[in-house]
Amino acid sequence: MYLLLLAFSTLPEMVLGFPSFRSKLPNGVRVPCPNGAFGCENGVCQGLGHASCAGGSLPLNMFGQDMVKNHHEWTKQLCEADSDGDGFTNGEELGDPCCRWAAWGIPSDYTAGFTPTHPGDANDKQQSYQRPACETTDPKASGPFMGEFNPGEIQENVSMFIDNYAIFGVKTTYVDIAWNFPDDTEDVFHIIFGAAIVNTPGGVLHHFVITGCPEKWLAEMHGKVVVGSREVRRSCQMPFGNWAPGGNVIAMPSWAGKPIGKNAKMKAFLVNVHFDNYALREDLVSRDGLRFYYTPTLRPEELTQLFTLKANYYPTMLIPPKKQRYFMTRECTVDIKNATSKQPVEAQVVYAGFHAHLLGVEMAYERIRGNDGLSIAVRSPWYFDDQSNTNVYVQNITLKTGDKLSSTCIFNSQGRDDMAVIGLETTDEMCGIHVELRPGGLEANCGGRIWTGELSEEESLLGLQLKHPITTADGVWTSSPSEGAPLTTVFSKIKQSDNSQSGNSQSGNSGTCKKGPPQLQSLCPQLLLAVQASSGDCDETMGELAMGKDINAQIIALIANYTVLQACCTDACKTVCPHHVVCTGAGDAPTGTPASGASHSMHVAITGFVPYMCALAL
Question: Which of 195, 285, 432, 458 has the fewest CB within 10 Å, making it most exposed?
């Protein structure tokens, strides 16, 4: 049974199309544009299922309609169909005439060397075609099927929903939702696949970030917003999965699962949800959710997660405007060992994941062993609204202690007139890169520095650390995301004040402040007094400050997940937080001032429940 197909066929967001669907077709990423095709990019047709090669719009052509019928998978039925009626099957047009190709494998020489034609355009077809012997089309290696039940496994699924959360009429809202895993019929289950259920219209749901909790929530909390209690949040730090458009929450290989249950370490979920309400609608109510497929038939392994670049909230880290290929990269040295014996382990890379926001256009992951560089994964182009993982298991790439990893995000800011900060809103930026490793249960860390700079138009993404060494960088930051350590500025040449075109630079001691949510501005005097009257911690959430106080529940829900710096930054910098790193600018906070402690607490809160995606900064 194809679990992946069943799940996708039932989830509303999967009526959308994504460029990554081409990777599920033989030669799908290199079909030449037919003569006269509209929307052709670099000679390659990006939207094979659409009327235009640009894709992303309706109507679908006949091949696209057949893809939908086959749940966007390369099935035998889709392969043997002649969607465009030109006399050649889809498999014959794409180089898999005997229907033996599978995604994420290593294709045969025949398939790899074949020049495909468009399976949705009857005027673009093979000339002088000779059908090969089927044995010559057998893949050299087959990749693992991800997110499917194995034969003989007991198959279960469960759906969980947000309990009618009224989305505020502001651009950006972050909330944390509590969900209990409801099945207590067995001690432990393995979750093997998870997908988002998108019910809110208009692309308002931006992401889910899911972490595991060691204890269940009170029953009345299920599906509801978690307010305050940083300690409770910090207990929910077990990495689980995340979702953004184009991706799955998790999709495990046939030998591995994610343990959960009444006798497992993970019994419940804390889910960070980001809503983008740019239309400022006040009538939206979220009933979005998650669907998990799981089994009591336990699998022999888990996977190990390793983050190698995580820049998700650091407002003094900036991307300048009018740059075609501005890079953020990190080179780190790997340390991998068995969690019990502490002996070094060589681990295999299963897949790589990338995350950025609207300016992200390319991604690269490279291993350096000695003097030899090896590409793990490159996504060029990369799409913000298509954040699928890259399965590389069949390449048999391993990591061991002493290897170096180069993780790179490329941003195109040519359409921007002002600086982009590394921050929480979709119009801010982020860069997150991670891998999943086999076997599970490892201690995997990677220590190194982040730096930024600019690539020329034709430069390769690989070998960047040699062509643009850290000594030539625009800015340098230390970090160890796998160990949860905060970013620390070494130096930065790029400051908000350097941006003559920006209207965002602040006068006085307001550093890299941005205007807070408009619905909170009238509350700023009270919020500043609350900080002064309590801990003085500018990174403490308003929900934490409100704990135990007689305040209207609707107001608490409105302010709960904001810090005073997020809500009232300029005023806070002038009064209660003058030494905070956000207020002073990159690297300017005096040694020993509250800035170092405040910066640390903010980052710990972020890394505590954000694997690599858009974070709620507490």
Answer: 458
Domain over 304-498 is classified CATH 2.40.10.10:
no
Angle at 390 (CA atoms; ends 387, 393), nearest 5 degrees:
155
Residues of the chain with CATH 2.60.120.310: 156-295
User: What are phi and psi for residue 502, nearest 5 degrees?
Assistant: -85, 140
C-beta separation of 94 from 119 below 8 A: yes
Q: How far apart are CA 184 and CA 207, in angstroms?
A: 28
Give the model confidence (pLDDT) of 512-552 as tens digits. 666 666 666 667 776 777 776 665 677 777 766 665 554 55
Distance between CA atoms of residues 252 and 147, nearest Å:
5
Q: Supply the pLDDT for residue 536.
A: 66
The Cα 247–Cα 254 span in angstroms is 19
Count of other CB atoms within 10 angstroms of residue 217: 21
Tokens of residue 53, six digits: 């090669």
**Strand partners of residue 173:** 275
Q: By C-alpha distance, which of 490, 409, 420 is closest to 448?
A: 490
Q: Which residue has the tokens 């993780």?
A: 407
Burial 4-16 (b: 16+ CB within 10 A, else e): bbbbbeebebbee
Q: Which residues make Cβ contacts (< 8 Å) with residue 220, sequence separation at least 6? A: none
